[in-house]
Amino acid sequence: MEFFRYRNGELHCEDFSLTRLAAAVGTPAYVYSAAALAHNYRRLAGAFRDVPHTICYSVKANSNLAVLRLLARLGAGFDIVSGGELYRVLRSDGRPDKVVFSGVGKTIAEIDFALRKNILFFNVESATELETLAARARALGRRVQVAIRVNPDVDPHTHRHISTGLRLHKFGVYWKQALPLCLRATTLPAVEFVGIGCHIGSQITRLAPFVQALARLQALGLRLARAGAPIRYLDFGGGIGIRYEKESVISLTSYARRVKAVVQRLGCALILEPGRLIAGPAGLLLTRVLLEKTSGQRRFVVVDAGMSDFLRPVLYGASHRMEPVQQASRRAPHTRCDVVGPLCETSDSLGHDVSLPRLQPGALLAVRDTGAYGFVLASNYNARGRPAEVLVRGKTFRIVRRRETWPDLLRGEA
Q: Residue 161: what pLDDT?
């Protein structure tokens, strides 16, 4: 389904004109479709409806309270990697008993906060962390449920900054060393061993790495069952890629069939931790053209959004579709250009060699598929306020995070 489409030559989010939206809230602004978020969640949940499962949305992808609240009402659980993310989930009416806490460096304060809130389980990423969790649970008079995050040493063939499942990465417990740690978890007072899992990376567009990781998890799960420690949960993380431009993407049906086969073989429930798959296609970044300029033969389109608003192109070399909000005539010539921001950095670019028609100052551009890893990576670099976030429902919209002002930049400083 298409939730961002042209009507009478003008790009809309659901039933609301992006031109009208920009006039009302200003630019730059992140715009999210409530219908798209719900559709993406339901599509994924539907693919696994015939096995016991919980979709734990990855909060780090987009942590806006309105987004979390919408997903919580649909029945989502949440994957968190910090105490702050847990705080956001709780403020969004998320259920703590559907929260999974991952991450290699949980602090004592974060652990205690999560223990007091009775989250579903912690994904343990080291032997030291397991002992710390056991000690904190005893100190607080609690019982802690733990799953061991396995590093399956699988290459996901994605950008190196978002690859997490190789032995050289900091995440998880090397798969050949995971069995003793799982069995150790079954012996500790105040600890309940509930499962195993892995997360091999993000924006993965091939099925083969998932299949390889599943095989190693299945083998470990079967060995645990033979040792008298069957698992209750298999946490298979997230990582399914989306189409930003012309990438081939994984068939959700094929992916689900492979995952469900392992879940059924192990006789357990499934946890998934998607973020990008749900939020990515549900948002866009709305930005306004400030001017065009040329340098030699090079054309530059300078816009009011920069790397402080949208870091992915700089951080990952990511490419996103860009479209004028006012659709150009079919006869209008398109030429290659660099779409750049106003920050004082050579790397401040939203896209290289983008094909666009000639754009006048004030024209609006939509940077597509920015609902995940967009605003959450924004900063105040160059003393710039972070952009507004807007949630559209049908013919109405709501500002779900107001634009930061200059006085906001000084808050907390002495």
A: 47
The CB density around residue 346, as the number of other CB atoms within 10 Å, is 7
Q: Where are the domains of the chain?
A: 4-32+280-410, 34-279
Give this prediction's pTM: 0.94
Q: Exposed (0-12), middle (13-18) or buried (19+): which is 338, by Cβ within 10 Å?
A: middle
- Confirm whether 4-32+280-410 and 34-279 share one CATH topology: no
Hey, what are 166's tokens? Answer: 């190789």
Are residues 349 and 340 in contact, defined by beta-carbon separation less than 8 angstroms?
yes
Look at the block and give the residue holding tokens 């931790």.
Answer: 273
Give the pLDDT of residue 317: 87
Average pLDDT over residues 334-361: 95
Query: Are the CB atoms for 282 and 37 separated by under 8 Å?
Result: yes
Inter-residue contact 54 to 77 (CB < 8 Å): yes
Give residue 14's identity as a one-letter amino acid code. E
What DSSP character marks residue 209? Answer: H
For domain 34-279, give the fold.
TIM Barrel (3.20.20)
Helix (H, G, I), strand (E, B) or coil at 393: strand
User: Which sequence positions are flagged as catalytic?
Assistant: 344
- Round to whole Å and give the CA distance between 318 and 339: 13
Name which CATH class applies to 4-32+280-410: mainly beta
Looking at residue 175, its pLDDT comes to 76
Whether the CB-CB separation of 99 and 77 falls below 8 Å is answered with yes
Angle between helices 108-116 and 127-140 (to 10 degrees): 50
pLDDT number for residue 166 = 47
Residue 159 — pLDDT band, cuts 50, 70, 90? very low
Average of per-residue pLDDT values in the chain: 93
Residues 6+ apart with CB under 8 A from 236: 197, 198, 199, 210, 213, 214, 217, 259, 270, 271, 272, 273
